[in-house]
Design a protein that fits this description.
By secondary structure, the protein is an alpha/beta fold. About 50% of the residues lie in helices and about 20% in strands. It folds into 2 domains: about 160 residues, no CATH class; about 220 residues, Alpha-Beta Complex (Spore Coat Polysaccharide Biosynthesis Protein SpsA, Chain A), CATH 3.90.550.10. The strands form 2 sheets. It has a 7-stranded mixed sheet, with helices on both faces. Strands 8-9-10 form a 3-stranded antiparallel sheet, covered by helices on one side. It starts with 6 loop residues before the first helix and ends with a strand.
Length: about 400
């Protein structure tokens, strides 16, 4: 029987896929409640500063939106004995004067501005990080890493290193939340897509550390061989995460280390950015990529295919009980997704009430864009099957393997 010539069989297929989506949506909703409880508990948790000197390494390239304020936030970290290592390719980089001014404004904070030169066999970011490691102080106990496009809270660094006091913890991590100043549709959509990844992180053991906010004991960094894994790598965080997990240690997410990036984007930039995240995941975390592929393809085919099928039978006048059931399942899956999005928003609001004004400008997009963000994921997932080339901050790379990266062009 030709499946596509028989609308009844198509409806049955959609109902089967809908059953999977409905079960997944229920489990996802339970995860949403756990996620909110994690943020609520964080707000009540007293500080447990671990002490020890820290080197905070911040790789920089180009001028990020709000770069001056972002850098200033790194220089205002409280209750931590730390030095900042700002590292870029060379002084011709447009960000270089910003780095000099940031260091001059806060002379009481130990800071060095470094020039790593151009990368050849790894990403420029990893190249910068490896260069900065040469300037870590002999008595530094912790290595921390931040991205120049986030604006961390004053207790960000202290909270980031707190989990490292537990012997079973290899790394502490935060994450990023995009805030749109203009509340454009593409910018809000990117924020919603990115927020979905946040739900993967936990205080028990996260599948990865995020490179823009991660900390690791220096002893663990050296014993687990992170430096060797970085030698030909494109991704700093996935490579570090693999090293930590291979050493039998956990990665702990700290909700208070969630940081905001005040950026807007176009729709083409959104597609390029989301593809880059997915392509890197395919190379460095193929299990997570495969789970996302199955989940997102099933979800998108059910929601979008079911909607098209319902429109078709409505126009042809052949709608019946089974189609009403299909409609009910689509609405249920859609509602579960919106509910989880609200739980995630409510969790963030509890810790970052001061930023709620900007967050809520994209409220409808967060709650209602689930099918569209899923479709964007499907496009990126399928595209990543056929291409391992990405463009990142003006440099084009080919990811041959987790341990081999080639610079294609600049």
């Amino acid at each position: 029987m030709d499946l596509w010539s028989d609308p009844g069989m198509i409806t049955v297929l959609l109902l089967v896929l809908g059953s999977f989506s409905l079960v997944e949506g229920l489990f996802s909703l339970l995860n949403g409640f756990q996620f909110r409880r994690m943020f609520t508990a964080e707000a009540r948790q007293p500080s447990q500063h671990t002490g020890g000197k820290v080197s905070l390494i911040i790789p920089c390239r180009g001028i990020d939106p709000g770069l001056e304020l972002n850098l200033d936030a790194f220089f205002r970290q409280r209750q931590v004995d730390y030095q900042i290592l700002l590292v870029t390719g060379d002084e011709s980089d447009p960000c270089f004067p910003f780095l000099e001014r940031a260091a001059a404004r806060r002379p009481e904070v130990a800071c060095r501005i470094l020039q790593a030169g151009a990368c050849i066999e790894r990403s420029q970011k990893v190249h910068n990080l490896l260069h900065a490691l040469q300037f870590v102080r002999p008595d530094d106990e912790v290595l921390a890493f931040g991205d120049s496009d986030i604006r961390p809270q004053p207790d960000w660094l202290r909270k980031l290193i707190e989990p490292l006091s537990e012997p079973t913890v290899g790394a502490g991590t935060g994450f990023r939340w995009y805030l749109s100043e203009k509340a454009s549709f593409a910018s809000c959509l990117r924020s919603a897509w990115n927020a979905g990844i946040l739900s993967l992180l936990s205080k028990k053991n996260s599948p990865f550390a995020w490179g823009g906010a991660m900390a690791i004991r220096r002893s663990v960094f050296e014993s687990s061989g992170v430096k060797a894994r970085w030698h030909n790598a494109l991704s700093d965080d996935y490579a570090l995460s693999r090293a930590v997990h291979d050493a039998g240690l956990r990665i702990v997410f700290r909700p208070e280390c969630l940081s905001f990036s005040y950026e807007d984007c176009s729709f083409s930039e959104l597609l390029q950015w989301s593809f880059r995240q997915i392509a890197i995941t395919r190379v460095y975390h193929p299990t997570l990529w495969a789970l996302a592929l199955v989940s997102q393809v099933v979800h998108s085919f059910f929601v979008w295919g079911g909607t098209v099928a319902l429109v078709f039978v409505s126009i042809s006048g052949r709608a019946g009980f089974v189609h009403a059931l299909l409609l009910a399942m689509i609405l249920a899956v859609y509602s579960l997704g919106a509910w989880k999005s609200w739980l995630r928003l409510d969790a963030v609001r509890r810790l970052f009430a001061q930023d709620w004004r900007l967050i809520r400008r994209c409220l409808l997009c967060y709650l209602l864009s689930g099918p569209l963000t899923s479709l964007i994921s499907v496009v990126g997932l399928i595209r990543s099957i056929f291409s391992r080339e990405i463009e990142w901050r003006g440099v084009r790379y080919r990811m041959v393997s987790p341990d081999q990266t080639r610079v294609v062009s600049r």
